[in-house]
Amino acid sequence: MTNVLPTYPRSNLTFDYGEGSYLYEANGDKYLDFGSGIAVNSLGYSNKYLNQKLMEQANKLWHVSNVYQIPEQERLASRLCDTCFADYVFFCNSGAESVEAAIKIARRYFYVTEGSKTKNEIITFSGSFHGRTIGALAAGGLEKLEGFNTAVPGFTQIKYNDHEALKNSINENTAAILIEPIQGEGGVSVLPPECLIGLRKLCDENNMLLIFDEVQCGFLRSGKMFAHQWSGVEPDIMTTAKAIANGFPLGACLTSKKVGDVMDHGSHGSTYGGNPLAVAVGNAVLDLMLKEEFIEQLNKISEYLLSGLQSISKKYPDSIVEIRGKGLMLGLKCAKDNKDFVEELRNQRMLSIKAGENVVRLLPPLTISINECDEALGKIAKACEAGK
Ligand SMILES: *Cc1c(COP(=O)(O)O)cnc(C)c1O
After folding, report:
1. C-alpha–C-alpha distance, residues 366 and 42, integer Å
2. 324 C-alpha vs ligand 1 centroid, how far in Å?
């Protein structure tokens, strides 16, 4: 038996180290990683620059409390705000915590600005995933709380794409709409720009806040810093984590000035959130990601990969019925069981991840090369061949 609480259905692979786009077992067997720790290791494994920055900080100072000044945290916040709509950043340690922060901030906004004690309802969508804390689970769908004897008021989940249901569910107590611009776990569903525009309009007309969960689709995964930036629409609050520090635990909830101003001293906090070690890595990640060449190369590669995948799906319509996604957040909708497809790829030493709607997610490091894409395309074609 294992002493680790049995909450994960783990495969029996054990990786010893990683380099670039590959993970290695102790015996030297290597796997091409199109999972990136679920969109976390976007700059690949053993990145020399990131390792150097981590070690520099590790030798200076790991942790101090947020009761003291943390200049690198200030710097990361300022740089993050320069990349998007936001004026404030709250640092935490995970995606779920950034969602918790978003829920608190949205509700507090109406408590403070309107003195409301009831405007707290948050509308979310089927197929969404927002994390595993009680609040984040409630946002992901109340049925997920049933097994914990827990009922959480203040969340209404409606069917993705059901415009009528959305309009009908809005009332004077609706505080916010929470949505992933690209659903990750739900099956790599990209919300079209016109939907984001429509949601913004609905929020403005009804005095509600718009929250984007970019924990998975943020940090250039979609080809833009944040996925909603393809639409030109700006949220009031945005949650991020996963790729923000390439695997060092860090999360961030970003807000506009108007909304963030309601959070005064003591209204929220975290012991570790944004500690020196985490933000040193966060800053190092931005050093690499914000280079213009980085984004250009990334967009070239993602076009190349997408066109390769489209040819494969044309050739094997009985295996792959649809290619979804944007940038390097791609999904293969399988004709047969997606679990078998993931397994077949694993047999060929390529890692991918299952998602909802029978989709196989491809989330390679953003630093992937053309050669590695070719290797992946070869393996995917073989998996289609094997599954015929
Ligand atoms: C992974 C994920 C979360 C939860 O992040 P954790 O770090 O596991 O708490 C929340 N929202 C989305 C969209 C995610 O993909």
Report:
1. 5
2. 20
